[in-house]
UniProtKB/TrEMBL annotation:
Organism this protein belongs to: Triticum aestivum (Wheat)
Keywords of this entry: Pyridoxal phosphate
Single GO MF descriptor: pyridoxal phosphate binding
Pfam families, A to Z: Aminotran_1_2
Annotated Aminotransferase class I/classII large domain residues: 39-400
Keyword Lipid metabolism: no
Protein name per Swiss-Prot or TrEMBL: Aminotransferase class I/classII large domain-containing protein
Family: Belongs to the class-I pyridoxal-phosphate-dependent aminotransferase family.
Cofactors required: pyridoxal 5'-phosphate
Native organism taxonomy: Eukaryota, Viridiplantae, Streptophyta, Embryophyta, Tracheophyta
Length: 415
């Protein structure tokens, strides 16, 4: 379809969430006086209810004013910042991470770039979830690293299809990627399911890359469990950052790669050494934000995090209830974490809508609502909806989606 451009098979190498959503924005009717309902991407920093902690802002200001953090950063990051992140992550692990186990990055997307580049040896392949975060595919395609998909199962709360993982893996598989809490599905994996993932990785002799940028952004019945807990079973590389939990600071560009590897598998394979070598020819995370990290971690109190999750819990509940009131949309699993949810588009209920892309472009033009098409995430005729929007606009935007569906709905047969 012309909306995507290029060959269908090249989609993974050309798309990102940002580019997908930007194309939907192009269909907005600029004469519509209503505010745009931005349900397409996870950057709610424009809304007052999602502002970051005062302690985090104060730490960054103090770091800038100190004059101590304007120099170039070492390739792996500033030592004090690496130590602070290692201590922070170690709180929930059965062993201690050292500063040498952590490499700082310019955000979590940069961490993805680094890991994919490091793994891209000739003939290797990496296993990616479907639906998934398309940056992994795009980076793999750019690096010439083969990627293979395993499915997430909506009927099982978007758990990993572990039989499917084993079916697509071979002797050239180097890693499997999981995202927990999950983007784009809004699911949270239980301790038992993570243990099974680790056991599958051990059986296949691969590392687990655990994308935990939404770590602790949970508001359902399941607590967040870091994959690093299972580092004794299989080596784990955790990707994370401050952009989500510290509410919302995506452009502070501070992420990390952390190795949970008590048996030394990654050390023996020189994985961390390769990561640091790559960082030497890549961009650095902002030095003054690195300088602020120890204070950001130390001084942000639990009350801030509790309030943030209360706000997100309320938004998720509103989103779930309103989606269930729309005939042509099915939400298979109530969101429990992150700030997004995947929903099925029931085209049989609609007239004049070809697929998920057509739905998103038309609802943008007619209702000024921006939604991410599931096709770009590996799920045709699904939608990814972001609910991290202030309550009035969230409710209004979902009502507009309902009006759109009613207007385009097929007439029901009268028996």
């Amino acid at each position: 379809m012309a909306f995507w451009g290029g060959k269908p098979g090249a989609r993974g190498g050309q798309q990102s969430i940002r580019s997908l959503v930007r194309r939907v924005y192009d269909f907005l009717d600029t004469s519509d006086p209503r505010p745009v309902a931005p349900f397409g991407h996870g950057d709610p920093s424009a809304f007052a209810c999602f502002r970051t902690a005062a302690a985090a802002t104060e730490a960054v200001v103090a770091a800038v004013l100190s004059g101590k953090h304007s120099r170039y950063s070492p390739a792996a990051g500033v030592a004090d910042a690496r130590s602070a992140v290692a201590a922070y992550l170690s709180r929930e692990l059965p062993y201690e991470l050292a500063a040498g186990d952590v490499v700082l990055t310019a955000g979590c997307n940069h961490a993805i770039e680094i890991m994919i580049a490091v793994l891209a040896s000739p003939g290797a392949n990496v296993l990616l979830p479907r639906p998934g975060y398309p940056t992994y595919e795009a980076r793999a395609a750019l690096c010439g690293l083969e990627f293979r998909h395993f499915d997430l199962l909506p009927e099982k709360g978007w758990e990993v299809d572990l039989d499917g993982v084993e079916a697509v893996a071979d002797e050239r598989t180097v890693a499997m990627v999981i995202v927990n809490p999950n983007n784009p599905c809004g699911s949270v994996y239980s301790y038992d399911h993570l243990a099974k993932i680790a056991e599958t990785a051990r059986k296949l002799r691969v590392m687990v890359i655990s994308d935990e940028v939404y770590g602790h952004c949970v508001f359902g019945s399941k607590p967040f469990v870091p994959m690093g807990v299972f580092g004794e079973t299989a080596p784990v590389v955790t990707l994370g950052g401050i952009s989500k939990r510290w509410w919302m600071v995506p452009d502070w560009r501070l992420g990390w790669i952390a190795a949970s590897d008590p048996k030394g598998v990654l050390r023996d394979k020189k994985v961390i050494q390769s990561i640091i070598s790559y960082c030497g020819i890549s961009v650095d995370p902002v030095t003054f934000v690195q300088g602020a990290i120890p204070q950001i971690i130390a001084k942000t109190d639990e009350a801030f995090f509790e309030n943030a999750m209360n706000v997100m819990r309320e938004a998720a509940e509103i989103c779930y209830q309103k989606l269930n009131d729309i005939d042509c949309i099915t939400c298979p699993h109530k969101p429990e974490g992150s700030m997004v949810v995947m929903v099925k588009l029931d085209l049989c209920c609609l007239d004049g809508i070809d697929d998920d892309v057509d739905f998103c472009t038309k609802v943008a033009r007619e209702e000024s609502v921006v939604i991410c098409p599931g096709s770009g995430l590996g799920m045709k005729d699904w939608l990814r909806i972001t609910f991290a929007v202030d309550r009035p606009l969230l409710e209004d935007g979902l009502e507009r989606v309902k009006s759109f569906c009613n207007r385009h709905g097929k007439a029901k047969e009268v028996k």
